[in-house]
Specification:
heterodimer; A: 164 residues; alpha/beta; TIM Barrel; 8-stranded mixed sheet; 21% helix; globular; B: 550 residues; alpha+beta; Sulfite Reductase Hemoprotein, domain 2; Sulfite Reductase Hemoprotein, domain 1; 4 domains; 6-stranded mixed sheet; 18 helices; binds protoporphyrin IX containing FE; binds iron/sulfur cluster
């Protein structure tokens, strides 16, 4: 997939979405991510595999539901169904700051140029851009602003408490 | 006032460059109108009936004279020579061209101004008491707190795509001049029994089609916890606020549907987890921010002046103005002066570029170079020496800024209505002017005393009609503009939503209806000290109804 950015670089995407473990005869191989429901249902069998694992949250899921699993996960996928729907910004900060998740937090859905800066500040480091977005141009979005006022996943303190 | 650091300047420059890029992408067609809308709205740019409208932020209503001159320059160069001061202490321009907007922002940035978050579903400009720092009834100056909120909320990465717009107001005095009870969050500075400063926190106030008074979810929040608590409220709202229906997306609906008690629990639980985070405000942080809002070097003056007192006796016009538009100052020998933007000649809140320049000069000459904007769409010179009042009055009168009507019947709040607004269902400016023309007799206005009339041109209630003593809402009924009357509202510390009195009036009947309402008050008040609102609350609707419809 071309329209994918990881840690501010255009990357190929190795992850595959997966559902329906109960119906399938064998465990899927490779790096897969599953919806939260699937994870809660089949956690143990999924963990028996060799590949890396991720969980996809819908933007109404409470990230606390996976907080104890985070050290076994390499990816959490968040959704931005519409540009205007900013719920996942809060989920991202909770995952990074409160629950200390170290893996990839990925934005999917209406992931557009003008949100990338905010997403990055909330701890999102994987971006599945919407199809019509230009990847190399989008990389510029991260540096449009260099001054930030408030704490977020990238800064512990507000601007007035930072030592330069 | 707050002075920008190098980083503050840097942020504005980057923001202007970013917006310039967005406009270019839009003009080239790389950005759809729908996607551009989200961007321009975060920068105060609305598409209106005839043109774009640009809303420029005036943080907590405080302007330097140089900033005012820049506002004049923008009105002259990019607009039709005037600007409109809004109920949230901002200024709006009605005629800018899209391609000019980046240049306007450049000019604003030079004087530390911008249009960031003046619209869109994000945290808007924080508003406050126009008498902050000079009022006699002040508990503590709210401006340092407002500035911290401004910085915390500017480009907050988590809260830039909220369910709906989010408005915060802070009051630091006994009397509420900032309408905090009708904001998404209202903060009231208070002292507890131990003499410590903190806030009463109100959440879920708002107007629009479902007007509500904010609920007190915490009666005392220590001041150090202000930002962590705000962050907790916003986080709960961002996650749980409704996004399925535009009209149910404000936090007032969330508080209402969740229940006050449950909502409070959610906020407190979230706050527990972040109250010691980096947003905790330390003593040294307060010391730093309060340093920007120190009292000026006031002169030691007697609270009397022979010239002033003589003119009060010899010049009736001056005496009237002094009676209505001047307020006592905390400092002896100084006064607070209201500049009335309510005349028969201009829409409420409108100021011409020439007036703006002149006001800037007057501020330099008489009032330490600062101007404040008020919730009721007027301006304030906050630090005028008693002995300068006669000279100031003469200059203000020559500028048509000395109508003696502050907080009186012709001090009307009005939204732009159908003359400008794409959402309007009726005109509001002509109604306010008709009322102003009718009540042009000073003695009658004086006799009516403290009373507020607010007008909105549609149910969105930008004109705050719900919280006026006498509210007027313009609606369209089968092709004609008619006007609904609400009585008994208040935006002050006794905040209340007014009640509709009965069927609507035609445009040519509404002024007579107001006249009747006012006569009922005059006939029924216990004494001239009893205000319209007190009388109304005492006697109730029936007498008014009878006179209007009987
Ligand atoms: C002309 C362009 C304008 C448009 C399109 C517009 C649009 C709106 C809308 C849609 C609402 C309702 C929001 C809601 O209930 O969620 C609203 C509320 C409001 N507007 Fe405006 N408005 C305009 C001008 C103004 C002006 C000139 C002022 C100030 C004089 C103003 C101040 C307000 C205030 C104070 C509210 C009430 C906020 C609340 O519900 O708590 N607006 N506006
Ligand atoms: S109240 Fe209605 S008519 Fe008036 S400015 Fe607001 S949206 Fe426009």
């Amino acid at each position: 997939m071309d329209s994918y950015i990881k840690d501010r670089k255009a990357e190929g995407d190795e992850w595959m979405p997966f559902t329906g473990l109960e119906e399938s005869s064998s465990l899927p191989t490779g790096d897969i991510y599953v919806p939260l429901e699937e994870w809660l249902k089949s956690r143990e069998s999924l963990l028996e595999r060799n590949g890396r694992l991720g969980v996809a949250l819908s933007n109404t899921d409470d990230p606390a539901l996976i907080k104890d699993d985070l050290d076994r996960l390499d990816l959490v996928v968040l959704e931005f169904p519409k540009m205007a729907d900013g719920r996942a910004f809060s989920q991202a900060r909770l995952l990074r700051e409160r629950y200390g998740f170290k893996g990839e937090i990925r934005a999917t859905g209406d992931v557009l140029y003008d949100q990338l800066f905010y997403m990055q500040r909330c701890g999102i480091n994987g971006f599945e851009l919407r199809n019509d977005q230009d990847v190399s141009n989008s990389l510029k979005a991260f540096d449009e602003m260099t001054v930030t006022y408030q704490p977020a996943s990238d800064e512990e303190f507000p601007i007035w408490r930072r030592e330069d | 006032m707050y002075q920008y650091s190098e980083q503050d300047h840097q942020l504005l420059l980057e923001r202007v460059a970013q917006f310039r890029g967005q406009v270019e992408r839009r003009l080239k067609g790389d950005l759809s109108e729908e996607e551009f809308k989200h961007q321009r709205l975060r920068n105060g740019l609305y598409l209106q009936l005839h043109a774009y409208m640009l809303r420029v932020a005036i943080p907590y209503g405080l302007l330097s004279s140089d900033q005012m001159r820049t506002l004049a320059h923008i009105a002259r160069k990019y607009d039709k020579g005037y600007g409109h001061f809004s109920t949230r202490q901002n200024i709006q321009y009605n005629w800018p061209k899209l391609e000019d907007v980046p240049d306007i922002l450049d000019d604003l940035a030079k004087v530390e101004m911008h249009a960031i978050q003046t619209s869109g579903n994000c945290i808007r400009n924080t508003t406050s008491d126009p008498l902050a720092g000079v009022a006699r009834d002040e508990v503590e100056d709210p401006r340092p707190y407002c500035e911290l909120i401004r910085q915390w909320s500017t480009f907050h990465p988590e809260f830039n795509f909220l369910p709906r717009k989010f408005k915060i107001a802070v009051s630091g005095a006994i009397h509420d001049r900032a309408a905090v009870a009708v904001h998404d969050i209202g903060l009231r500075l208070i002292k507890n029994d131990g003499g410590e400063t903190g806030f009463e926190v109100l959440v879920g106030g708002g107007l629009g089609r479902t007007p509500m008074i904010g609920k007190t979810i915490r009666s005392f929040l220590p001041k150090q916890d202000m930002l962590t608590y705000l962050e907790a409220i916003l986080r709960v709202y961002n996650q749980l606020g409704r996004r399925d229906n535009l009209y149910k997306a404000r936090i007032k609906i969330l508080v209402h549907e969740t229940g006050e008690e449950k909502f409070r629990e959610l906020v407190e639980a979230e706050w527990e987890k972040i109250k010691t985070s980096g947003l905790f405000i330390r003593d040294e942080d307060f010391a730093w921010i309060k340093g920007f809002f120190k009292d000026p070097e006031y002169e030691n003056l007697l609270d009397q002046d022979g010239n002033y007192e003589n003119l009060l006796l010899s010049n009736l016009d001056f005496a009237r103005w002094a009676d209505k538009n001047i307020e006592l100052h905390k400092q002896s020998g100084y006064r607070i002066v209201y500049l009335s933007l309510k005349t028969a000649h201009q829409p409420p809140g409108d100021v011409t570029a020439d007036q703006m320049d002149a006001i800037a000069d007057l501020a330099d000459k008489y009032s330490l170079g600062q101007i404040r904007t008020t919730h009721r769409q007027n301006l304030v010179l906050s630090d005028v020496k008693l002995k300068d009042l006669p000279a100031l009055w003469e200059e203000l009168a020559a500028l048509d800024l000395a109508t003696p009507n502050y907080n009186h019947v012709t001090d009307i709040i009005s939204c732009p209505g159908l003359d400008y607004c794409a959402l309007a269902t009726a005109r509001s400016i002509p109604i306010s002017q008709a009322i102003t023309a009718r009540f042009d007799d000073y003695d009658y206005v004086n006799d009516l005393g403290d009373v507020s009339i607010n007008i909105s041109g549609c149910i969105n209630a930008c004109g705050h009609h719900h919280v006026a003593n006498i509210g007027i809402l313009g609606v369209n009924k089968k092709g004609t503009e008619v006007y609904q009357l609400t009585l008994g509202g208040s935006a002050r510390e006794d905040a209340a939503i007014g009640k509709i009195i009965g069927p609507a009036f035609e445009a040519d009947e509404i002024v007579d209806a107001i006249d009747k309402v006012l006569s009922v008050y005059l006939e029924n008040r216990e004494d001239p000290e009893e205000t319209f609102l007190t009388t109304y609350r005492r006697v109730g609707q029936p007498l008014f109804k009878e006179r209007l419809y009987g």
